[in-house]
UniProtKB/TrEMBL annotation:
This is Transmembrane protein 265. The keyword Transcription does not apply. Keywords: Membrane, Transmembrane, Transmembrane helix. It comes from the Eukaryota. It comes from Albula glossodonta. One of its GO terms (cellular component) is membrane. It is found in: Membrane. Belongs to the CD225/Dispanin family. The keyword Transmembrane helix applies. InterPro entries: CD225/Dispanin_fam. The chain crosses the membrane at residues 54-72, 100-129.
């Protein structure tokens, strides 16, 4: 590339011309995070979340055995976040899914048990009165 000398105030600045010399390779200026990315960072758009707090909450406020499985996936996601981001993202999604399932199943049981008890009580009163 051709260089030009330019005076600005009391300073001398060297600038490069935009005209490439024949046979010279011109590297493109890129902005991080834009365009198509390849390699390890192509799978996720940001840091891998491990959902450990959600998994612990699902153990306490959900069905514990499912919450423990979510916690195991959360720990696997945390361990692999630097070395293997693709698998870390998969484990992270599993941890989130199983945590929500554990909490939803517990809420479902909390609603279903009283409804079933009321239904059985109603049916028994119908049978005993006739």
């Amino acid at each position: 590339m051709e260089q030009k000398v330019r005076r600005v105030g009391g300073m001398v600045k060297m600038t490069k011309s935009a005209i490439p010399v024949a046979g010279e390779h011109v590297s493109l200026q890129t902005v991080p995070g834009t365009g198509n990315m390849t390699g390890a960072h192509a799978f996720s758009s940001g840091p891998v979340r491990d959902y450990r707090r959600l998994a612990i909450g699902s153990i306490i406020c959900g069905i514990s055995c499912i919450g423990i499985y979510a916690l195991i996936n959360s720990v696997k996601a945390w361990e692999r976040r630097e070395s293997d981001p693709e698998n870390a993202e998969i484990y992270s999604n599993k941890a989130r899914k199983w945590s929500f399932f554990a909490i939803a199943a517990w809420v479902g049981l909390l609603i279903l048990i009283p409804v079933l008890m009321a239904l059985v009580s109603y049916l028994l009163t119908l049978i005993c009165l006739h």
